[in-house]
Amino acid sequence: MGASNGMPHRADDTRGTRPRSLSDIRVGWIGLGRMGAPMAARLLDSGVDLAVYNRTTAKADPLVERGATRLGSVAEAGECEVVFSMVLDDAVLGELHDPRTGLFSRSDGRRIAVWIDGSTVSAQAAERAADAARAAGVAYVSAPVSGNPAVVEAGNAVFVLSGDEAGLDLAEDLTRRIGRQVFRAGAGAEANVIKLCVNAVLAVTMQALAEVAVLADKAGVSRAALMTFLNESAIGSPFTRYKTDNLVALRFPPTFTPEGQRKDIRLALDLARRTETPMPVLNTTETAYSRLISGGLGEGRDFAALVLAVARDAGHALEPEEDRE
To answer: Catalytic site residues (predicted)?
Structure first.
């Protein structure tokens, strides 16, 4: 990513001591939510010495029972040479480098060498975290992930990395133990920008799929027939295929919530405003997600429940179908 995008590069600003190989070190993991828990489990299963922390302590229990060490606080994670975080949003990421209680708050001189963050956050939040790491002499790497919990569990997650050279090799080693493919994007917050762009495409695609599913149904064509053809066409993809059951059978077990998707849309739109990039389609899509949430149809459901909101607006009742793929 070039300087023209306003993102600073830190290719020459490496710091922190390069840690030894993973066989010699303990990795601290912060954040055991819907994505963090299966990611940490794959690391543990790969033989990594793992120590885990989550604000809701019970979420750490399954991993502790399988051999992970329980951490009592974020500051305690600072005892580990490497920390991987997977948290909700910009605010929680900021808490991790709070000078009073965060990763760098220890007074005993012990500090981590590399901090890797896989959260979907703004480039600005990532830069603030990197600045705090810089002040503490720690290498910082952004490592957002593409996939849902089932994809992670199957070992098919894809990562994009950017950040300090001193931490990139180790970050790649760790993420390859979790997923199937890892890409490097630069020396700054490039990975965070890429993740927001990808999630923006997913959000818009889901809205488009919901609209055409209702259009076909209202015109007397089964949604199963539509999706069978669409999935074999030039625009078919792994995403359209694994969303087919949502659209056809109207089953919406949450892999990604409407609230989470809207958060990412808003981060992308904030970036668009900062860079003077008009995004009329994404702006309209944000409104669709907001209506889904405020109308209650998305509660406890996957973001594919957009199809219910589109049907409501069309004055059309959908019935579950069998997927005939």
So the answer is: 195
How sure is the predictor about 107, in pLDDT bands with cuts at 50, 70 and 90?
Answer: confident
Query: Would strands 158-163 and 181-186 be described as parallel, antiparallel, or unpaired?
Result: parallel
What is the CATH class of 194-313?
mainly alpha
Phi/psi of residue 281, nearest 5 degrees: -65, -45
Bridge partners of 29? 52, 84
From the DSSP assignment, how many helices (H) and strands (E) are in the chain?
A: 14, 9
Whether 195 is a known active-site residue: answer yes
Asked if pLDDT for residue 11 goes beyond 50, the answer is no
What is d(CA 237, CA 64) in angstroms, rounded to the nearest whole number? 37
CB-CB neighbours of 67 under 10 Å:
10
Domain residue limits, the chain: 3-188, 194-313
Cα 133 to Cα 272: distance, rounded to the nearest angstrom: 27
Residue type, 110: R
3-state SS, residue 173: helix
Mean pLDDT of 150-173: 97
Topology of the domain covering 3-188: Rossmann fold (3.40.50)
Distance between CA atoms of residues 168 and 186, nearest Å: 10
Q: Which of 59, 195, 218, 263 is catalytic?
A: 195
**Residues 96-125, mean pLDDT to the nearest whole number:** 92
Q: What does the CA dihedral 24, 28, 32, 35 come to, rounded to 10 degrees?
A: -60
Burial of 66 (0-12, 13-18, 19+ CB in 10 A): exposed
In this predicted model, what pLDDT tens digit does every residue of 221-243 receive, in sequence order? 999 999 999 999 999 999 999 99
What per-residue confidence (pLDDT) applies to 109?
65
Torsion of CA 242, 247, 250, 256, to 10 degrees: 50
pTM of the full predicted structure? 0.91
